[in-house]
Amino acid sequence: MSISATHPTINKDREASSTRPPATIRLLVADVDGTLVTHDKVLTERARAAVARMRDAGIQFAITSGRPPRGMEMLIAPLALTTPIAAFNGGMFIRHRTTCAAS
């Protein structure tokens, strides 16, 4: 059995979703290697600017990585991070001011 776009349940769901206000993004979490930094481990100016624009828009920014906390220290100041950092694939959450002590 196939369901067409004229199916009453589908149309009802579409109507309901179109009347809801759009969700507000409050936090964006990014992986570090290959996402936030290049394959050469470089944090580009474009990435820094994007994070700054998000912050200006009221969106918090956090990072996660398989790296240990010390391996992400180089991102804290350039990105002005204030959110906790997820290290070891989410196995450890730390606040930026305790990065050195935690690793």
Explain how this protein is built.
This protein is of the alpha+beta class and about 100 residues long. It is built from 4 helices and 4 strands. The longest helix is centred in the first third of the chain and has 12 residues.
Share of helix, binned: 25-40%
- In DSSP terms (H or I, runs of 4 or more residues), the helix count works out at 4
The major sheet is characterized as: 2 strands, parallel
How do the SSEs run, as a string of H and E?
HEHEHEEH
Quaternary organization: single chain
Strand order of the largest sheet: 1-2
List keywords for this structure.
alpha+beta; two-stranded parallel ribbon; two-stranded antiparallel sheet; 34% helix
Compact summary:
34% of the residues lie in helices and 16% in strands. With 103 residues, it is of the alpha+beta class.
Secondary structure blueprint with pairings:
Elements: H1 8-19, E1 27-31, H2 45-56, E2 60-64, H3 73-79, E3 85-87, E4 92-94, H4 99-102
Parallel strand pairs: 1-2
Antiparallel strand pairs: 3-4
